[in-house]
Automatic annotation (TrEMBL):
The keyword ATP-binding does not apply. Keywords: Membrane, Transmembrane, Transmembrane helix. The chain crosses the membrane at residues 117-134, 140-164. It holds the Pfam family DUF7344. Residues 15-91 form the DUF7344 domain. This is DUF7344 domain-containing protein. InterPro entries: DUF7344, WH-like_DNA-bd_sf. The keyword Hydrolase does not apply.
Amino acid sequence: MGILRKRNLIDTDIHDILCNQRRRHALNHLRRRRETVSLAELADAVAEQETGQASPPADLRQSVYNSLHQTHLPRLDAEGVIEYDPDGKEIRLTESAREVEVYMEVFTRYGVTWAEYYRLLGTVGLCVVLLATLEMGPFALVPPVVAVTFFLVLLAVSTVYQLVTRRHVTLRQLFG
């Protein structure tokens, strides 16, 4: 691996890094693993993401391998986001990757931002509680306290889910 370095990335650098889907898939895999991975493992994981198949075609895996090795990993290494050893074919995230992770964490797995999700949850919750309080339609059967409790539990479960899936970022923010 190369010399450990910390570089402050600017928004345009981060945008340029994340504008390529293959680089995003590679970074996501490295974030999940949190350890040094081989180029072969990374290429397989990225090819699986691109095809949605557990065993993508060999020619695609080879194409991903070559593009990662020749283009994407050297670029990420030059930006200081990863350390890439082209001889040993090993990759690991650097501390500078945290700057990029912030931009990657904005969206849920389904392409909706967490802000949109919580706004929708709050709006639906308030509407259901209001309709239950006014005893309108089928909501007349639901006591308002049950509706409030349901949405509070849903909010708590959603928050715990988000914290658990982002635990590495959350722990770093809490404990430095």
